[in-house]
Amino acid sequence: MAKARIAVVGAGLMGHGIAQVFALAGHDVTITDLVKSNLDSARARILANLNDLGDDQQAVERVAPVADLAAAVRDADYVVEAVLEDLSLKQKLFADIEKHVGPNTILASNTSVIPITKIMEGLARRERALGTHWWNPPFLVPLVEIIETEWTSPKTLNFAMTLHAAAGKMPAHVKKDVPGFIGNRLQHALWREAVALVEQGICDAETVDNVIKAAFGRRLAVLGPLENADMVGTDLTLAIHKTVLPDIDSRRAPSPYLEKLVKEGKLGFKSGEGFRKWSSEKQSQLRSKVLQHLKKARAEDTNSTS
Ligand SMILES: NC(=O)c1ccc[n+]([C@@H]2O[C@H](COP(=O)([O-])OP(=O)(O)OC[C@H]3O[C@@H](n4cnc5c(N)ncnc54)[C@H](O)[C@@H]3O)[C@@H](O)[C@H]2O)c1
Question: Is 241 a catalytic residue?
Answer without folding.
Answer: no
